[in-house]
């Protein structure tokens, strides 16, 4: 299996290399190709939309900035995200204003000879965007890596104990599983994975690093038909994580499903099946589904045929 965000980071590097290798006459075509990919790939578009929302510029302000740059006035940025947001919005404004992607031909971008001009555009206006996209996608991939590690740890080594605690409990079933995941995340370096702060939509199960400007929001659900925790429980979790992602201005959400049923869950989504974990892109936000097969059952040689429960994207989104 491959990680979707790893593939995206590889694509970002390839697109940047294409721009760096592009001849002067072809630079505009490569820039058009790049910006079009930014808009049509939901994960990237979602990140850029969040940056625009955090640091918005209207055309009047960008036109003033254009005049300031002509007068060699420096622009002070609050952060790398601020710089990326500004350069992305400025590029879009400038292309619309000049009605051309061949920005390298405009005197505004003239840094000297042809090579210096292309390098100047790439480093001053595009590299800040690439850097922030890489950082955002890398953090998301790191969370996915940790959740996959937790999945393997539970299924390979801790299933019997966790399943026993769950089976013997009379109530607060999710709390047992939530505490186990919190401890793991803390051990792996997620600081303070303890908060369940109230938001406009209620309380998420885990909001890690809530004291930072980039919190991790994660929801937990159980699939166990003997306790009437069926598909509706997963759909409920998906609805909740969408709301929490909106409340915390996140473009990524994680739904961890503890499968305490004898059946296997099969997420039949639009994304290819070789991508881990299954995911849905909804309203320019990406939501990952991580299944932890937590029920301690008989060995594979004695378990017989396994029932499979299919969950489709349409069932969750009501398309």
Give the number of domains.
2
Distance between the termini: 28 Å
Read across the widest sheet, the strand sequence of neighbours is: 4-5-6-10-9
Q: What percentage of amino acids are in beta strands? A: 15-25%
What's the number of extended β-strand segments?
A: 11
Decide which structural class fits the backbone.
Answer: alpha/beta
Query: Number of DSSP helices?
Result: 9
Largest sheet, described in full? Answer: 5 strands, mixed
Q: Which spans of ≥5 residues are poorly predicted at pLDDT below 50?
A: none
Secondary-structure element string: EHHHHHHHEEEEHEEEEEEH
What general outline do the C-alpha atoms trace?
elongated
Radius of gyration: 23 Å
Q: What would the average pLDDT be, to the nearest integer? A: 85
Percent helix, as a range, is 40-55%
Description:
There is one protein chain. Strands 4-5-6-10-9 form a 5-stranded mixed beta sheet, with helices on both faces. It has a two-stranded parallel sheet with strand order 1-8. The relative contact order is 0.11. The mean pLDDT is 85. A hairpin with a 7-residue loop joins strand 4 and strand 5. The protein folds into 2 domains: 2-133, no CATH class; 169-317. The protein is 53% helix and 16% strand. The chain has helices at 4-21, 27-40, 42-54, 59-70, 80-98, 114-168, 173-187, 231-247, 313-317; strands at 2-3, 198-199, 202-203, 206-208, 216-223, 252-259, 264-268, 275-276, 279-282, 285-293, 308-312. The radius of gyration is 23 Å and the shape is elongated. It has 9 helices and 11 strands. The chain is an alpha/beta fold.
């Amino acid at each position: 299996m491959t990680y979707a965000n790893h593939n995206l980071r590889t694509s970002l590097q390839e697109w940047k290399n294409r721009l760096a290798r592009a001849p002067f006459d072809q630079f505009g075509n490569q820039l058009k190709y790049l910006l079009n990919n930014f808009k049509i790939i939901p994960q990237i578009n979602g990140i850029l939309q969040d940056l625009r929302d955090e640091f918005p510029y209207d055309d009047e302000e960008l036109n003033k900035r254009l005049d300031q740059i002509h007068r060699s006035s420096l622009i002070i940025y609050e952060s790398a995200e601020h710089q990326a947001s500004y350069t992305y919005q400025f590029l879009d404004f400038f292309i619309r204003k000049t009605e051309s992607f061949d920005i390298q031909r405009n005197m505004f971008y003239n840094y000297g000879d042809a090579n210096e001009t292309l390098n100047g555009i790439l480093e001053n206006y595009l590299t800040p965007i690439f850097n922030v996209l890489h950082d955002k996608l890398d953090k998301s991939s790191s969370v996915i890596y940790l959740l996959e590690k937790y999945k393997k740890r539970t299924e390979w080594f801790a299933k019997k104990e966790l399943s026993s605690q769950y089976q013997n409990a009379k109530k607060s079933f999710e709390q047992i599983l939530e505490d186990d995941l919190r401890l793991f995340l803390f051990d792996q370096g997620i600081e303070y994975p303890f908060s369940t702060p109230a938001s406009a939509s209620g309380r998420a199960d885990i909001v890690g690093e809530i004291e930072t400007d980039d919190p991790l929001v994660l929801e937990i659900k159980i699939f166990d038909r003997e306790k009437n925790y069926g598909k509706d429980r997963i759909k409920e979790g998906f609805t909740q994580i969408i709301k929490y992602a909106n409340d915390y201005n996140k473009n990524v959400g994680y739904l961890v499903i503890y499968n305490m049923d004898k059946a296997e869950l099969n997420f039949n989504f639009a994304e290819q099946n070789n991508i881990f974990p299954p995911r849905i892109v909804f309203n320019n936000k990406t939501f990952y589904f991580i299944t932890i097969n937590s029920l301690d059952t008989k060995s594979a040689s004695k378990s017989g045929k396994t029932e499979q429960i299919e969950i489709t994207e349409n069932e969750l989104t009501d398309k």
